[in-house]
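tool=predict chain=A
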Amino acid sequence: MSEPDRETALPYIATGHRPHLFEIAFEVCRQVGGIYTVIKTKIPHMRERYEDDYTLIGPYHAETAALEFETGAIDLPFLKNIEARVPGLRFGRWLVPGKPRVILVNLEAYRPRIADFRYLLWKDHGIDTADYPESDLDDVILFGFAVSEFFEALYAGKTRPASMIAQFHEWQAGVPILRSQFRDLPLPTVFTTHATILGRYLAGDQANFHESLETVDAKAAATRYHILPRYLIERAAAQGATVFTAVSDVTGQEARALLGIAPARVLPNGIQLTRFQALHEFQNLHVKFKERIHEFVMGHFFPSYTFDLDRTLYFFISGRYEYRNKGFDLFLEAIHLLNRRLKKEQDPPTIVCFVITRAETKSVNVTALENQARFDDIHSICEELEKQMGHVLLEAAAHGRIPELEELLPEDAEVRLRRTIHAFRSKLLPRIVTHDPVHDADDAILSHIRYRQLFNAPEDPVKIVFHPDFLTANSPMLKLDYDQFVRGCHLGVFPGYYEPWGYTPLECIASGIPAVTSDLAGFGSYVLKHISDSRGRGLMVLPRKDRTFEESLALLADYLEEFTRLNRRDRIELRNRTERLGESFDWSHLIKHYFEAHELALTEADRPGPA
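tool=predict ok
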């Protein structure tokens, strides 16, 4: 169907009324994981379609609301008296592009009723939470019943939109679907799963997760992992929604096996691209942030030994700390194999591999921090000398002569520089981890690094830096926001075993940085289905489906080695192709899938039920 045809097929065009879309998620105005990115980045396109008939609903958290939420007056007639019927609501705007209307629910206003809500969840829906006293489950239940009461109040009011749609993201927002169905509200609902809760547990625990998916006793497994109420909420929401959707074919297959229902639509995740006026602008950003990474690398490695930064490549892996699911195990094995291969060469390049995730740490390591501080001292002195030398050189040139070295670098400045350089030197090997982990001996990534003896020895072409915290510009180590760090690297590697979608390679592509994903990732599956010659355009989809670990390892190591063979011109041309590939994943192309799901929900809700 063409875009004009799709427009004329919208149910609200025929009725003359545009529906009011409510979008409900735990990550509205609060970043916890990838759903925050999904919702935030598509807002401009939702506003373009629904204009001001678009409202987001999420739980209120004071810390994050202070940064992202702007309190405002109730600006919709049908909401004017809602506060009298539904307590704890805060109205305002989300301070992101598009500034959508937001309603945040203060869960504390409902907490005294948690026992009643748990009872109703059991009595009305057969979901027993008695043996599950977790506070985060309480928050899900409180939020669910609060949102349910909000919609009941809307339908009970004298004024309300001519039509409404409610889209719910993930099991944490699933309870209102159960309640709306139980209370016979004529609310068209869309439920979107970004990953099944049981699938995440199983994938991290079973070596043959994908192969054994169809034989899983889901209820027994959920009981074993102590997540039964969460699983039952998710299953009931998926089966009870007017339209059930998933973010990828991979997640859809998982839902069919574990939740007992296949999605009616797949809603692939998009990105909001930054468009540059000139092609060279994003290349300039790569150079700019690569120089910033160079500075960290000099501070981290050069006290012990040096190498040629012009012949150094930066690879990285990042994501939630799920050692096997996210492919950290495969990445570490691949760079170990790459190190062995490069050591056999006469003059190999240097590959610095960053592992970026969040683990429990005590603090930044003192030695690593001191090295960076001493490098900063050298940097400051050099900048100061650069200015002084510039003045001396200019004055000498104006006099028609070339200055002597002693004029450019006076004795006191030379002594100061020598002392700083001497203090910078170390006889220790560069650290493999930037922080002091709480569970050093039991950390899976550290254990793997030590097992493969990737100790940053001078003779090892492949170096490693494990940064067990997410990146921000305020970090005392890398001093870069994550997106800046990505732009400064050469290759992102994300060979996940369980990845319902996988935003990390997509973020690389959006920045013009080549990446590796896997065919077990929702994103990788989508690429294989819709993108031709992705490898030649900077995106390698690693075969893991129906492959042994060793087979995938060999293929990944081969690709990494192949990448090290590219010269500077090759890498620039590849980045150009990668940057152009990003257009395929912009929300302007992918948002249509959301609108189609909304159309389907309206159509299905209007369809007469059985007599």
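The radius of gyration is 28 Å. The chain has three domains: 20-272+590-604, 280-365+431-585, 366-430.
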